């Protein structure tokens, strides 16, 4: 529990209604979307503006209290679980779209704005904000920025980082900085904007963002292609890219995922297929039509069992919903679903998927794989039961082997979910000791007292699910 | 001069022929493309590979000797002038294209590869590396990465940073790190890749880079439009963007530049026009034709005096050459040419150009302005004489006022040239004290002994051209 005088000051800053420390409130903010990670905070604080954030951070710095910034808590790496106790700083009240600037093609937002609200607001003006993480109907833009969220349009359009032009942020010492601006080019010093994107709340609290917009593509089309084996599907992906087409979306589902999704949604997916690709293109009509035809032809040349181009908006929605429901469908199978995101160079998808299947069999665990084939970002997803320690031990070992293979193939331990607690033990596999040391030095440069989101990114040596809060003050 | 034992060890590392300390060699590496900045190094060292770079850096760290990494020296912010003396580390021997990977759409290069050689190599395979800085026929990719170079295609395609996927770099302590990879998505820790891009050789020595490629656009077209006044030209830029077209190129020249270029190239530019736009589009033929027609129509609606669409490759070349020769043409007028790059949000181009003209008149200095209108990146260019201290004093004051206006308009002190020595005194104007302090802390985290490119980015309080080397060991 926080000292009395700290609690009083927090209440004075944000108001009685926005500083919670009843047990039920603390429990509500003790976990996020990541299974098997939980830790109680000491208080939940909901500031209404940057000035209040600044006051909370200054108070926390004086009192030496950890601060974990949180939006919707939809992340999958336990990035917002308060393992060091302290304050959970919830930014959902700061949820205003401050400006859509149609001349400079930017939108300025507070961190608590929902991602899908940004989509709606800008598309109503003929503009487009491409990043579309799976959680976009609940996730906040602040969370997307903190985690550098990806999505289904990453292949052609990139990720959140590619759209953040400027930030306002409160440093661990309580100072406010402003980086970048409504500027397509800015080389005034180190790129603090891009450094803060993906820093998982460990370097600063993001309180405002300027995002880049682009014109909304005139049209979009999607298609499904199913394959009798994995190799045909993977070769299709390579051949599409080799023919100099960059689809907006190029998604993969293995047989396991396909069957579960069909069982859940019943939209007529061929459950005997070994693999499915969901391919979308957008842009000017001529380009889209030509690309769709060429892609369909490449699918057929590579032995696709079925190629189905959505002919209207309902069919297209159905197809996209099938893909977007993969996680929900898989979650119905067993009590616990662990979604990972080992990522490899696009050309290494076949060996990666094959390795996942081999490793799952060897450890007798149930893993289905789907993901963003076009950018090599796969989501091997394990259906398991957190109450079975023996099985969980095997799951952990299987994922360890999967990460090791990803690294061997020139990939990374996380493509879009972040490090948080979950990947911290493996960070050195990707970066080497020297790389991790540099990152720790950057962390110390910003936050010498380790108060912003402690225990993340550089945490313990081994995975350790279900963490209890041992930092009682 | 370096101690005898250090000179001997440098020779042992790189070989006699690649360690120079004769006066004429030191003079050759005492300046770069930035006028009025010069300082002698103590030695010039040309390593052939990463291992040699690593050994040089370790030796420099032990002996406490500054190291300034250098490619072609074509930068415009004095970033490679060795103001602290020490070693100039020239990476031009590391000039191999290591791999073009057509499946992953990447090119892996050593830092000494020329930018235009990358263009040629990938375009021969139907691929495209968009960044095209003005110096691209001499500049090296290592220099482009260190400075985050822009170019004429930034509006649609972004700058160097948007294409760097992975780096190998030698840290100031001699350790080698590898960041990123052939990966479109990677969120394993802080983004060291983007932090090193644009870090001006102050954080690490970049020894290898993986760059993203895209399919080469099927066609490109360019046009010229001239205007009787600045406002019409600026409104045209706004209207093009407002109509949801993002041209590949959207360049601006004021009357002063236009006249000098016409005098130099004699291609029939209307020298009575107040402003000229050079507009290019690329992509699929239907899109390009439609965009070119719409843009031409927008130009006419805004009162363009003349709109001339290049009808063949020769005409297009002529138009692009006119723009690319602006600096060369202006340089013929007076002994010294100072090219700046104040940058503002696109919508603020008119007030910025008007302010430049007003400030130039007030200080009685000759400034012509051209630049990348589409991304608000302007190059006010002053024709002056370094030998006239009174005039130079007025030039400095004029540029100071120009930077101040850029900041007021929500812009920055440098869009694509970098901070180096030239902009260091103004960095705080853009970032505030807290922002600069964070950057200094990052610098210390990487390089606690301040050996990599000292005296840059955070240098003296005031501009001070013609710096002498006062660090004699």
Automatic annotation (TrEMBL), chains A, B:
Its EC number is 1.1.99.14. Gene3D superfamilies: 3.30.465.10, 3.30.70.2740, Vanillyl-alcohol Oxidase, Chain A, domain 4 (1.10.45.10). PROSITE patterns: FAD_PCMH. It holds the Pfam family FAD_binding_4. InterPro entries: FAD-bd_oxidored_4_C, FAD-bd_PCMH, FAD-bd_PCMH-like_sf, FAD-bd_PCMH_sub2, FAD-linked_Oxase-like_C, FAD-linked_OxidoTrans_Type4, Oxid_FAD_bind_N, Vanillyl_alc_oxidase_C-sub2. Residues 37-216 form the FAD-binding PCMH-type domain. GO terms for molecular function: FAD binding; glycolate dehydrogenase activity. It comes from the Bacteria. Belongs to the FAD-binding oxidoreductase/transferase type 4 family. This is Glycolate oxidase subunit GlcD. It comes from Brevibacillus aydinogluensis.
């Amino acid at each position: 529990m926080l000292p009395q005088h700290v609690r009083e000051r927090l209440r004075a800053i944000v108001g009685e209604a926005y500083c919670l420390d009843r047990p039920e409130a603390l429990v509500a903010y003790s976990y996020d979307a990541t299974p098997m990670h939980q830790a109680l905070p000491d208080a939940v604080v909901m500031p209404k503006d940057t000035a209040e954030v600044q006051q909370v951070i200054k108070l926390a710095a004086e009192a030496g209290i950890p601060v974990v910034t949180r939006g919707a808590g939809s992340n999958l790496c336990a990035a917002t679980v308060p393992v060091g106790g302290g304050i959970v700083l919830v930014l959902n009240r700061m949820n205003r779209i401050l400006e859509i600037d149609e001349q400079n093609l930017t939108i300025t937002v507070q961190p608590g704005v929902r991602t899908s609200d940004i989509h709606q607001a800008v598309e109503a003006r003929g503009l487009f904000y491409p990043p579309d993480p799976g959680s976009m109907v609940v996730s906040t833009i602040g969370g997307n920025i903190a985690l550098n969220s990806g999505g289904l349009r990453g292949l052609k359009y990139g990720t959140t980082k590619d759209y953040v032009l400027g930030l306002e942020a409160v440093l661990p010492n309580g100072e406010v900085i402003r980086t970048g601006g409504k500027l397509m080019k800015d080389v005034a010093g180190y790129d603090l904007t891009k450094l803060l994107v993906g820093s998982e709340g460990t370097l600063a609290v993001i309180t405002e963002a300027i995002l880049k917009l682009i014109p909304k593509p005139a049209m979009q089309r999607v298609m499904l292609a199913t394959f009798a084996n994995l190799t045909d599907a993977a070769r299709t992906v390579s051949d599409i890219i080799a023919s100099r087409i960059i689809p907006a979306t190029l998604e993969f589902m293995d047989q396991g995922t396909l069957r579960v999704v069909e069982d859940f949604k019943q939209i007529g997916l061929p459950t005997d297929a070994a693999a499915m690709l969901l391919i979308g293109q957008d842009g000017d009509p001529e380009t889209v039509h030509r690309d769709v035809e060429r892609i369909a032809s490449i699918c057929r040349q590579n032995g696709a069992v079925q190629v189905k181009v959505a002919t209207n908006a309902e069919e297209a929605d159905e197809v996209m919903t099938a893909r977007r429901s993969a996680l929900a469908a898989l979650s119905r199978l067993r009590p616990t679903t662990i979604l990972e995101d080992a990522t490899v160079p696009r050309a290494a998808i076949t060996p990666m998927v094959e390795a996942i299947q081999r490793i799952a069999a060897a450890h007798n665990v149930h893993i289905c794989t789907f993901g963003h084939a076009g950018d090599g970002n796969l989501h091997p997803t394990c259906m398991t039961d957190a109450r079975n320690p023996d099985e969980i031990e095997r799951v952990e070992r299987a994922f360890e082997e999967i990460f090791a293979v990803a690294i061997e193939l020139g990939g990374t331990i996380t493509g879009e979910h972040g490090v948080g607690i979950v990947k911290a033990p493996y960070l050195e596999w990707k970066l080497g000791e020297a790389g991790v040391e540099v990152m720790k030095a950057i962390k110390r440069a910003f936050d010498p007292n380790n108060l912003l989101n402690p225990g993340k990114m550089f945490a313990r040596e081994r995975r350790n699910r279900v963490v209890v809060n041992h930092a009682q003050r």
